[in-house]
Sequence to fold (185 residues):
Amino acid sequence: MSSRTLLAGAFVVACLGLSACTGRQILSMRAHPAARPTAGIPQAPQAAFTGTAMAATTDYPKNANAPRPQPPAEYANLKSPLQPTAANLAQGATIFTANCAPCHGMSGRGDGAAAAALSPKPADFATPIHAKLPDGYYFWRVTKGGSVPPFSAAGSAMPPWEGSLTPSQRWLVILYVKHFSAPQK
Fold:
């Protein structure tokens, strides 16, 4: 492993540790007002995902194109209590920008400033599989982060947000994240 890679990894770990894994400090250092999300998020057209979105056994996150693992029973049937209104999406965007964009990027493509040093890479929410994932899966991932199998075994750096964000804030972020993979009208 090159010293440059080790240095980049150490920098990301230090930043995440100093910011309590919220990314607020990283984002404030990189604030670009013109890059803030807007109501209409442009994205390239994507082919519809035709495979199964979730599976009992999978090699995700090592294989980004693999189906996602089934969430535990207490999350499997959860439905968002919020509607994707302009106000809710704006609140979700604010929370996403402060907490998620350092890794997932402002456009949700998994290309944030910290992403280069992470393995596995942060999810690209604009991929077609994300349009098919149920609310319960998203709530499980945001709540538990990379602290549960199979994500912990793969070395996921995603923090569990259950101690930092209220359930309502997590649902707002999920509404916003799902907007990245929504079909364009």
Q: What stands out?
A: The longest strand covers residues 54-55. The beta strands are 54-55, 68-69. The chain has eight helices and two strands.
